[in-house]
């Protein structure tokens, strides 16, 4: 409660005005609303999402402490996520004390402040309630109360920026708690390092977590037991079996010496020349900020955020098919264009349904039909994916996720028109999108398709894989592209190898990367992007971090002087 009071009292207006800002993520009881932090770097804040799959969710409730009683104008920052001629799908009410504000929120285009009118606050301690009206992704970012009735808050209104306190000094900081990040942290911990693992969700596993539910693929590498404690079984994508594997992953990390910072989101770095000195992270609910100092950092964020903030070289999009070696005719970058572009593999939103003992209704969703058209389905697998040249997988991530919501709800609504599906109800729809590709941080070596097709062997091999190269493009139905379904193009090959030089930044001295942001071309990512492979990358970087500490060197120094030690730790014998 103390931090929340400080948050709401931080705004000191003029001598005659009182102002209170309530961040929705700080609500003490979130009811059925879920906390969504995926788009903080785009829209400014975590927010509450009424993710009810067509059924209104339970109210979110909190207590607000006002500096004084009296009349306040109320503003609510929300968004109509599907503007058009139809009624906004994500509508909700707000109740302050015992009064229901006479406005439906979530009805204006884009993230904006809606005027909720004047409310009389009778007590300095007053309850606030968010009341979902639809179950279709209503969203609330913040509420702003002011006694200055003429004041209109802007979208750039100053947020709480508490003092950043020290989290301590570590040997290694790993940012990102997917399979790669978990592997990196555990490997470094095994070697006796002090390790901080920062992850922006409450559950570990990234795409393999029970929030996204993609099973792990690939092989486990030279040491085929290391990943066992964080791996998943081969359940069907979207399966609730992911819950058990997520619990196992947490037990594994809890039994280690890794210091976990779950629900902490990195938001910046401090540099000293070409070295990262520290990473700053903020708790996604409380807003508390901490600074993590270390000698070595590993970026396992997927989007390459740590490298991006540090100024690391990176790529986004498809290279020319002729950039690497001989090009198309001799198996260069297959499926790539002659001219580079910004196309990458897309993000999937998994979902499924179940059959009940009696018929079940599903609301009309006219706002979804522009996307779904006449497509009908009662379940969704990995193919439910969106990638588009005009949509950036980082900058437009919320629009991409929301587009998939429309595809899912519209397709399910079409399927419900079939009498055979009368008893079918939605069981689970992910609200966290599973990304395949975005930024790729550049190392001393760029892994390409040629490295796979020619089975190139490297002296610094630390990852082994044999999964086919697999890249995705939008599917065509009846000859027309479908912008929410994808198809896979495969190039099947034998065993191939990834060198350590792909796992450290070529221009940031103490930064390594593991996961889909490793140093590769677009097509080069196609095979090793799966999670057992990225877990191998994480393990290699964690072991490399231990050598950096032991020999007082950096990752490039490990490559130049300590390859034998690194490969032995990874399970390879020269």
UniProtKB/TrEMBL annotation:
The identity of this protein, by name, is tRNA uridine 5-carboxymethylaminomethyl modification enzyme MnmG
Q: Name its species.
A: Pontiella sulfatireligans
Q: State whether keyword Transmembrane helix applies.
A: no
What molecular functions are annotated in GO for this chain?
4 iron, 4 sulfur cluster binding; metal ion binding; oxidoreductase activity
SUPFAM superfamilies reported for this sequence:
FAD/NAD(P)-binding domain
Signal sequence, renumbered to the chain: 1-17
Instruction: Give the UniProt keywords, A-Z.
Output: 4Fe-4S, Iron, Iron-sulfur, Metal-binding, Oxidoreductase, Signal
Task: Report the superkingdom from the record.
Answer: Bacteria
């Amino acid at each position: 409660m103390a931090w929340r009071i400080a948050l709401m009292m931080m705004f000191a207006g003029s001598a005659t005005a009182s102002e209170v800002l309530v961040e929705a993520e700080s609500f003490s009881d979130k009811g059925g609303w879920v906390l969504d932090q995926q788009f903080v770097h785009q829209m400014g804040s975590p927010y509450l999402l009424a993710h009810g799959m067509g059924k209104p969710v339970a109210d979110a409730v909190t207590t607000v402490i006002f500096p004084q009683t009296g009349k306040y104008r109320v503003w609510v920052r929300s968004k109509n996520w599907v503007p058009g001629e139809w009624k906004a799908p994500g509508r909700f009410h707000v109740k302050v004390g015992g009064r229901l504000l006479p406005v439906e929120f979530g009805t204006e285009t884009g993230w904006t402040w809606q005027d909720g009118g004047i409310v009389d606050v009778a007590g300095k301690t007053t309850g606030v309630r968010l009341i979902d009206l639809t179950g279709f992704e209503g969203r609330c970012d913040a509420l702003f109360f002011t006694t200055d009735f003429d004041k209109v808050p802007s979208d750039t209104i100053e947020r709480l920026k508490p003092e950043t306190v020290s989290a301590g000094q570590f040997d290694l900081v790993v940012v990102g708690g997917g399979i790669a990040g978990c592997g990196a942290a555990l490997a470094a911990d095994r070697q006796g390092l002090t390790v901080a693992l920062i992850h922006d969700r409450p559950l570990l596993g990234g795409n393999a977590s029970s929030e996204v539910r993609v099973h792990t693929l690939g092989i486990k590498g030279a040491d085929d037991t290391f990943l066992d404690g964080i791996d998943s079984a081969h359940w069907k994508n979207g399966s609730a079996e992911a819950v058990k594997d997520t619990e196992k992953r947490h037990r594994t990390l809890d039994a280690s010496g890794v210091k976990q910072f779950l629900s902490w989101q990195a938001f910046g770095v401090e540099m000293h020349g070409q070295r990262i000195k520290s990473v700053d992270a903020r708790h996604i609910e409380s807003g508390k900020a901490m600074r993590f100092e270390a000698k070595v950092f590993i970026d396992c964020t997927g989007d390459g955020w740590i490298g991006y903030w540090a100024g690391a070289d990176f790529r986004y999009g498809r290279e020319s098919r002729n950039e690497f070696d001989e090009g198309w005719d001799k198996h260069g970058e297959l499926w790539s264009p002659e001219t580079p572009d910004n196309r990458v593999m897309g993000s999937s939103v998994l979902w499924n349904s179940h059959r009940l003992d009696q018929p079940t209704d599903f609301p009309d969703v006219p706002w979804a039909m522009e996307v779904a058209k006449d497509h009908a389905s009662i379940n969704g697998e990995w193919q439910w994916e969106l990638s588009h040249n005009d949509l950036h997988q980082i900058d437009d991530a919320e629009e991409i996720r929301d587009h998939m919501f429309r595809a899912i709800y519209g397709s399910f609504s079409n399927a419900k028109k079939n009498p055979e599906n009368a008893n079918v109800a939605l069981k689970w729809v992910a609200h966290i999108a599973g990304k395949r590709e975005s930024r790729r941080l550049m190392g001393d070596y760029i892994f390409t398709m040629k490295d796979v097709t020619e089975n190139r062997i490297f002296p610094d091999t630390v990852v082994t894989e044999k999964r086919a190269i697999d890249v995705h493009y939008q599917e065509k139905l009846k000859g027309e592209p479908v912008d929410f379904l994808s198809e896979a193009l495969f190039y099947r090959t034998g065993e191939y190898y990834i060198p350590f030089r792909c796992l450290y930044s070529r221009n940031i001295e103490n930064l390594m990367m593991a996961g889909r942001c490793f140093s590769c071309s677009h097509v080069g990512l196609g095979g090793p992007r799966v999670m057992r492979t990225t877990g191998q990358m994480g393990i290699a970087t964690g072991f490399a971090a231990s050598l950096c500490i032991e020999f007082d060197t950096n990752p490039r120094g490990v490559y130049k002087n300590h390859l034998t030690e690194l490969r032995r730790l990874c399970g390879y014998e020269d």
